[in-house]
Design a protein that fits this description.
- Two copies of one chain form a homodimer.
- Chain A is an alpha/beta fold and 238 residues long.
- The first copy, chain A, has a single domain (2-137, 165-231), classed as Alpha-Beta Complex (Spore Coat Polysaccharide Biosynthesis Protein SpsA, Chain A), CATH 3.90.550.10.
- Chain A contains eight helices and ten strands.
- The first copy, chain A, has helices spanning 31-41, 57-67, 84-96, 119-132, 174-182, 186-191, 195-201, 221-232, and strands at 2-8, 25-26, 29-30, 47-52, 75-79, 106-111, 134-140, 144-147, 163-173, 207-210.
- In chain A, strands 5-4-1-6-9-7-10 form a seven-stranded mixed beta sheet, sandwiched between helices. Chain A has a two-stranded antiparallel sheet with strand order 2-3.
- In chain A, strand 2 and strand 3 (29-30) form a beta hairpin.
- The longest helix of chain A is centred in the middle third of the chain and has 14 residues, at 119-132.
- The first copy, chain A, is globular and about 50 Å long.
- Chains A and B meet through strand 7, strand 8, strand 9, helix 7 and helix 8 of A and strand 7, strand 8, strand 9, helix 7 and helix 8 of B.
Chain lengths: 238, 238
């Protein structure tokens, strides 16, 4: 089986709004609905889990009922943990009640604040996760990457040709991810907020799927301006 | 003295337009005019050099005459070389005819396709170049940075907290930059297209100046959409 996991646990907003960015209106619907619709439209996606802060459980239920009523039976909303990892673990625990612990089962995780994920990315994530076990969706770096250990002077300027921006979805064979999590110390769990990084450190190969420059994460007011421009340009129709 | 160097030598356009991106109209003026106006408005900037492809010398002269006629006497347009380094070298050679080879003289280099440079960035570039000798304008990375040596699987996911996106301006004490260039082999010149990287490799400290997310380089059609949204949001007024 293939499960979607939309990570919407954040409550902070650098956008100056009263609600977290994933619930802000963007065009004619909240940000989170864009990726939820794409996940539900994928014929290979059995169920979609949404992990949210406890304060937003009811709000998310209302959004699902309002915007994707015909698919509401395939959507599970649950309370996220204190961190991205905790939210993912809660979702995996909930998924485990639905499946037979198959080595073939896949989880496609996605940031709720990245509305412009495409069906191609989702399909390629599923394919690569089935083949390799772990997947990151990335975009070739457009800016030169600069490393500064102290934030004051340059430490290094690595070769740009091998640098990528890490986006989402990130996808995994569920059993593989569970096994890797179980090897982590509490200290590692606190540090390793990126599941693909956990794979890297444990020697698990992570395949790349090509992202698009449009697959931005809405974090700052500038990102919100960009997302609105993308909507006006029809980027969400792709 | 302080010299501006606007690097406009590119002729490629991934935007599907007939003219290079730095000459495309953005709002009510060509892209290049935004940074040219900012440079000319800086009271500490003695002269501004623009390096362009030979085919666009006349076009650039017309732009200067049309958009900044009262400052045209402070603008020098010259033919760029085949690469970014060559263009910069041509500009430095031209600057050398105007100055007394002072250790204090500064060059503030900037991508013509980054219209939203701010006066703060220019001023801080001049300050830091006078103090440290070399400066890069950077923005803290918002995406996780992923390294892939083969473009197929992840090689490493470095600590995001020390990663920055390299923008421009990049600024240098002119004599320092000339001395460093003279130590490069032809092979190094071909590889080291980034003047700050040359400094790094030769052990010259490079100070960081804070950029803004708005200081994007217009390269793709998506960037052009974003730039137009920034204009609509008044980003160029800052």
């Amino acid at each position: 089986m293939v499960f979607g996991a939309i990570l919407a646990g954040g409550v902070g907003s650098r956008l100056g709004a009263d609600i977290p960015k994933q619930f802000l209106m963007l065009g004619d619907k909240p940000v989170i609905v864009y990726s939820l619709e794409k996940f539900l439209a994928c014929p290979r996606m059995d169920r979609v889990f949404i992990g949210v802060h406890p304060d937003y459980l009811e709000h998310t239920k209302q959004i699902v009922a309002q915007y994707v009523p015909e698919d509401a039976h395939r959507v599970h909303i649950l309370s996220g943990g204190g961190s991205r990892n905790d939210t993912l673990q809660n979702i995996i625990a909930a998924i485990d009640t639905l499946r037979q612990d198959s080595e073939e089962d896949i989880i496609v995780t996605h940031d709720a604040a990245r509305p412009f994920v495409t069906m191609r990315m989702i399909e390629e994530n599923i394919d690569a996760a089935q083949k390799i076990g772990a997947v990151n969706t990335v975009c070739a770096a457009t800016d030169t990457i600069v490393i500064s250990e102290d934030g004051a002077v340059v430490s290094d300027i690595p070769n740009k040709a091998v640098m990528y921006y890490g986006h989402s979805p990130q996808s995994f064979r569920i059993n593989l991810l569970k096994r890797l999590y179980n090897t982590l110390t509490q200290e590692e769990k606190d540090i390793l907020t990126d599941a693909c990084k956990i794979c890297c450190l444990r020697g698990q190969q992570v395949a790349l799927v090509r992202s698009e420059y449009t697959n931005l994460k809405i974090t700052t007011p500038g990102d919100y301006i960009i997302a609105q421009a993308f909507i006006a340009a029809g980027v969400d129709q792709k």
